[in-house]
Every structure is written in C-alpha cells, then in structure tokens.
Amino acid sequence: MEFLYKYAWIVPFFPFSASVPIGLGSFFFPGATKSLRRTWALISIFLLSVAMFLSFNLFLQQITGGPIHRYFWSWIINKKFSLELGYLIDPLTSIMLVLVTTVGTMVMIYSDNYMSHDKTYVKFFAYLNFFNASMLGLVISPNLLQIYIFWELVGISSYLLIGFWFTRPSAANACQKAFITNRVGDFGLLLGILGFYWVTGSFEFQYLSEKLNELITVGGVDSFFVTSCTFLLFSGPVAKSAQFPLHVWLPDAMEGPTPISALIHAATMVAAGVFLVIRLFPLFRALPLVMNLMSWIGGITALLGATMALAQKDLKRGLAYSTMSQLGYMMLALGIDSYRIALFHLITHAYSKALLFLGSGSVIHSMEPIVGYCPGKSQNMALMGGLRKYMPITGITFLLGTLSLSGIPPFACFWSKDQILSDSKSYSPIFGGITWFTAGLTAFYMFRMYLLTFEGDFRINLVNLYDNHIILYSTSMWGEEESTILSRTRVDFISTQITGKNNSFSKEAFQISNKMEECSKKNRGLVVTYPFFHKGYFAYPKESGKAMLLPLVVLGIFTLFVGLIGVPFFRGQINYEILSQWFTSSMNRFDENHPKNSYESFTEAIPSVGIAFPGILIAYGLYRPIHFLSQGVHPRTMKIILDQSINILYNWAYHRAYIDIYYDIILTRGVRRLAEKSNSFDQWAIDGIPNGLGILGLFVGEGMRCLGGGRISSYIFVYLLCILISTLIYYYSF
Q: Matching InterPro entries, A to Z (predicted)?
C-alpha cells in the first residue's frame, strides 16, 4: 500500500491530463477536436473514473486503520525562508476525494447527453476537467499556500463554467458577480494566511495550529492580531460557501448549465469553504470569539436561505437557496463545536443536492422543446405540473432527494440534520429555535417545488386551452424569443400523421417524429419535437435518455444509504459508528448527548420528523394537485401560485430579502457616484491646476510676444497708456 500512498498525487492529474489536450486542441485544431467530441468525452469520463477508483482505494485504506501520509517537495529553499509543495492523505482527504470523484463522474456521464446539442460541447468538457483537477488538488493540499493556489484555480474554473453561455447577458453578469464577490473573501483569506505565517513562520496545518495554541497559552502573541487574522481567514470560506453577507452570487450562478449547478453548487465548490474550516478546525477552536461569529453567520444563513426559497418560481434558484440554507447548517454546526456532524451533513447533502440538481436538469431538458430555450419558461415551475406521469424515473428520484432534504427517515440528510438539531438545541435555545424553524421551512419549500413540478396537470397546455391557435415558443440559444403559431387544422394534421387514425404509431409517424426531433435538436426550441401522443392537441414532455437517467438512479441509491455511515448500530457487544472511528471524538463536545444505539436514534428522531410534517402538510394544502381539466375551470381564473395571500413573505422571498437592492444602492451606485466624483476631481483639480497654469503661461507668452515685437509705436502707446492709468489712479485717490 506504500505504492498507493506514494503516487496519490496522480489523482488530480487524471482530469488535468484530459483538460489540457482538449483545451489546446480546441485552440489550435478546432475542427479536428470538434470532430472527436464524443471521443474526448469518453476519455474524460474514463480518466475521472480511474481517479475515483484510486480514491476509493485510499478511502478503504484510511477506514481500515491506514496511516496518515504526508509527502513534501522543496520548492523554494533559503536560509530564512522555505516553501514546500506536496500532498496529504488522511481520513478527511479520503472522504472528500471520494465525494468529488463520484459526483464528478456522474455529472460527466450526465453532461454527455445534456450538452450534446451545444456547439461548444468540447470546451465544456475542458472546463469541467479543469475544475475537477483544481478541486482535487485543493483537497489533497498539505499547507495553506498550496490550498490558496488551488482555491484560486477553483474560482477561475467556476467563473468559466458559470459564464459558459456568456453571450446571454444574464450569464455574463452572473459570472462577473460570482468572481467579484469571491474576490472579497479571497483577499481576506490571503491576508489571513500571510498574517499567520508572520506569527508562526509556517504554512503547514498541524504545525501552524500547534504553534498558535502554544503562543496563545504563554501570551506570546497579541490576541487582537490573531483574532483579526482568523476573521480574515474565515472570510474566504464565507464567500466560497455562500454565507451571509457574501451569499448574493450563488442564486445568479444558476445561469450556468445545470450539470455545473450539480457539481459546483452542490457537492464541491461551495463545500470547499466548509472543508477549509474543517481542515483548520483546531485553529478556529482556539478562539471562542471566532467560533461564536461562525455559529451566528451559519444560523443567519440557514434561516435566510430557507425564507428566500419559499416563493421562488425558478426551479434551479429554489434549489440554490436551499443549498445556501444547508451550508448555513454546516457552518452553524462547526461554530458550536460539532465538527463530525458538520462533515456528516456535508456528505449527505452533497449526494442529495446533486440528485436534485440533475433531476431539475432532466425536467428542464424535457421542457425546452415545448417552451423554448428560455430559462424564464423552461425553469418556471408555474408552467410545469404533472411531469411524474411523463417522466416517472425523474419524478421518483427527485422525490427521494426531496424526502432526504426534508429530513424524513431513512434518507441520508435525516441522520445528519437530526444531530445538528439536537446539538444546536443543547448549545443554545436561540440556535435550537433557528435550526428547528428552518427545518420546517425546508420541508415546506422542498415539497412545494416537488408538487408544483411533478403533481397535478401539465399547466403549459392550459394557457391556450380556449384559443383557436396553439402558440409554440421557440427561442434560439442566444437570440430573441420567437413564437410559432399552429392552427387547429395544422395541429389536427400533425396529430393524425403521428398517431394515425386509429391512435397507433405507424412507420410514417415514426419517420415524421424522428425528423421533428432532429430539427428540434438543431434549433433548440421547436415544440413539435415531442409530439402530441394520445393527448389531443397538446405537446407533452418525455423522459430523458438513459445517459441522463443512470446518474439519477446511482445518486438516488447514494441518497438512500450514505446516511448509514453516521448511524450507531450494534457490532457484537459494542455500539459501532463508522464516522466516530475516523475522527477523534473529543472534537465534538456533544458526543455524550448523541444516541448510543439504533433504538435511541429512532426515538430521539421523532421530534425532528415531527417538525418536518407540518411543513409538508402546509405545502400540500397550498399546492396540492388540482386537476383543472377535469373540473372545467377556466384557465384565466385559476391561480397556480397562491403565495399572493401572504404578500409580505412573498415579496421578501421574491426580492431576495432586499439584500441585493441594498447592495445595489450602497455598493454599486455608491461606488459609481464615488468614481464620478473622483473623475470630476481628477479633471478639475488634479489635471485642472496644471492645465490652468499652462493656459495662463500661454496667454502671458502671447502677450509678451506682442509687446516685444520691436515696433517703437507700440512701445510709445503702452508707455502713454501706463501714464494715463497712473494719473487717473492718483487723481481719484486724492
């Protein structure tokens, strides 16, 4: 096994070795590279799968008692200064390697089908491999300097992926917003790293923590300076993990392709901030003030994200705010010293949220041929409904993720969230109230999304139910929205040709259907791709392909069983819990409050499940399936979204708690006004004084040139004029 540890550095090298040739090939040989697009995709999936296999091997070595392995290469050597690069393999590293590679592999398999229409398909896989390599490099980093290098590479790759469809103004603005917001946190992180190096003389995790604790004990360092450096260091995770007040970039980042939302904003990039806090937890733990701030930021973020998810119409934005809320749970758990539970929730949430995002991508993929390539329509839950009948596998897997995130046993997030609720209640009644109330809100908004999307009737067809024409929206990837109007006669003709007079598909019908589907894939938006089947005049979605369903099924299995790693169960005569065997139990002050066996786990879980059920029932009461067609309700009088009954809460959620508005007024407009005033000061003062002196010198010079022309008559005229002026002054003075 020494061989495995010695070459563990090769894990991030596998996706990197795919990213470089794809990127260089796209730049120097674009035609040849595009012609081999599927080959490059298969190579990328294969290499990341190999990295996943090695990660599982390292993981098995660690959980069976393998040693912690550190390896360093000298980079810069000096008498008073040295820098080293290397890698670190310990239980935390092995878990994160498995997490990143498994979710990354599933996302790549999914992307092969989801992005098949895109002309920049090859470039997408180059960016995706680059991101995976950066994230894996961050995970195995043994010191703060190397973490910062890969931290910035993760930021660059996320910028490229969020703005992948950069010709859409919203996507271009979103990637810039994410980049600038993260720069605020990253600058603080850099200052914190330099401050701790100045204090301890090292970037290495273990030595840094031990040296700092020693200096604090003997009073050898200024407490204010150390606390300030820790605050700065913590600002990096605050931005990267979308914690209040630097959370504003995460919802807008949904402008990127949906596979990116699953990879970056569920399992990896946003988890990097939590990972860094866990890695440096002995350092943070030595400063109670920072721990208290961490818990409050986590609690506020959890509650804020849950309230803003309540009335979102966009499916992906609702999941984005849910991610923000769950990351707040993790940060709160770290702040109250529940190190192991925060990591546990990081694992369970990653698989559950990746499943939900990929499920939403499957829904969007099936809606686009009907409503057009327009996020305002294809992601709008108000236009969905009843999709479970047409997309059963997507509906079932999405329901699994919904149940998990809502905290319903035996799904993954139930086990971790239940322990966070218990620990927060033991730590403080305030934090207990925040986490329990947020748990109820989570169950409400998750089932709201599920019911609006998958239950009831398909609502897009109700819009034109009583019209004489069917309007089929068609939006090109980058162009303006267009609409195709089909008359009833034309619809009848198409429906008859496809289904046949006896409602059975004929050979000609399949040919027509295939041609229509081929046309739709080229134009991305022609509704008649997915024909009207047996439903009369209307278009209906269909289930996604097998390449997209396979990752959903695999992640659904993970969502069912991954929570068992943190569940106590009997092994012989002792209670055995897998996570407790990996990490030092003294890191968690609430271990004595945790259940000691499976029976206690289920009995103590009753209150946390009880808080979820009211949220589910309220969601069902407000958004229960209403079969409009069977009731004969006129579409102009129906109200699909009933959030208008609580306008204050709806406006709070819809306007993102008004935080973006405040940022726009205070920061964006304030900086713009400051820039305008600075520009005016620069023009009229900084440049104005030299320009004024120059103009004055010009006039004086011109005047002297005229006076010194050598003409006696001019001299006499000036002489007499001066005498006249002097005489007048003398006369009127006396």
A: NADH_UbQ_OxRdtase_chlpt_su5_C, NADHpl_OxRdtase_5_subgr, ND/Mrp_TM, NU5C-like, Proton_antipo_N
Residue range 267-290, pLDDT digits in tens: 678 889 999 999 999 899 989 999
The sign of the dihedral angle between the CA atoms of 305, 622, 544, 53 is positive
Q: What is residue 591's predicted lDDT score, i.e. its pLDDT?
A: 52
pLDDT band per the 50, 70, 90 thresholds, residue 21: very high
Maximal CA-CA distance, the chain: 125
Question: Of all helices (H) and strands (E), which one includes residue 74?
Answer: strand 69-77
Q: Which two tokens stand for residue 68?
A: 């912690």
- Asked if 325 and 270 count as a contact pair (C-beta separation under 8 A), the reply is no
Spatial distance between the Cα atoms of 695 and 689, rounded to a whole number of angstroms: 10
Beta bridge partners of 89: 69
For strands 569-571 and 574-576, give the pairing: antiparallel
The rounded distance, in Å, linking the Cα atoms of 319 and 107 is 17
Q: Which of 185, 425, 410 is nearest to 299 (CA)?
A: 425
Closest CA to 558 of 411, 342, 415: 411
Per-residue burial over 592-621, b = 16 or more CB atoms within 10 Å of its CB, e = otherwise: eebbeeeeebeebbeebbebbeebbebbee
Contact 630, 455 (CB under 8 A): no
Q: Is 555 within 8 Å of 353 (Cβ atoms)?
A: no
